């Protein structure tokens, strides 16, 4: 079983990915883990990636695609199957993945798309506030400070401000939609309602995977 999980920031993709891996024994392949492993093992692509990262440059697509191919060609993938998380990020990477899978005689069985209304994600992601004195983190809606708290005692990081969150979501939507459309044409996208309780989201995901 080979799967790809997609979803906007804050949709709960990471939580569900770890549940899928635990339940189905798939190899969890996230971009960050792959890069770290390739660099630690000093693979050809790992060394190349490190040369860009050390200079503070973005790693080009061909290197990222190469690292993915290196990882997918390892024996444990054919034995256990994989869950791709955080790749592909662009439509060009999706086309490169298609080519890689074909060359390795692997098939992508399904795309789990955790679908959440962007407006509710803005509320979820931009509600984080931090106590100026203690550094404790709270959430205005889901985990507010006790009692009637004074907003002047709290601050928000730039990353957590609504306008920054909205920009980040807009970029993710613009990049992600062509990828979902691409896989929808193949008929392997399964939309999961992500605005439910975490256990219910996983129940829905499990039903989809069991049916594949």
From TrEMBL:
Q: Which residues form a coiled coil?
A: none
In terms of Gene3D superfamilies, this protein maps to: P-loop containing nucleotide triphosphate hydrolases
Q: What segment(s) does the record annotate as region NMP?
A: 30-59
Chief localization class?
Answer: cytoplasm
Spell out the Pfam families in the cross-references. Answer: ADK
Q: Where does ATP bind?
A: 10-15, 128, 137-138, 196
Q: InterPro entries in the record, alphabetically?
A: Adenyl_kin_sub, Adenylat/UMP-CMP_kin, Adenylat_kinase_CS, P-loop_NTPase
Has the keyword Zinc-finger been applied to this entry? no
Name its cellular compartments.
Cytoplasm
Q: Which CDD domains match?
A: ADK
Please give the pathway this protein is involved in.
Purine metabolism; AMP biosynthesis via salvage pathway; AMP from ADP: step 1/1
User: SUPFAM superfamilies of this UniProt entry?
Assistant: P-loop containing nucleoside triphosphate hydrolases
* Enzyme class, spelled out: transferase
Subunit structure of this chain's protein: Monomer.
Function (record text): Catalyzes the reversible transfer of the terminal phosphate group between ATP and AMP. Plays an important role in cellular energy homeostasis and in adenine nucleotide metabolism.
The record ties this protein, via NCBIfam families, to: adk, PRK00279.1-2, PRK00279.1-3, PRK00279.1-4, PRK14527.1
Q: Which family does it belong to?
A: Belongs to the adenylate kinase family.
> What PANTHER family does the record tag this protein with?
NUCLEOTIDE KINASE
Query: What is the protein's name according to its record?
Result: Adenylate kinase
The species this protein belongs to is Streptococcus pseudoporcinus LQ 940-04
Gene from which the chain derives: adk
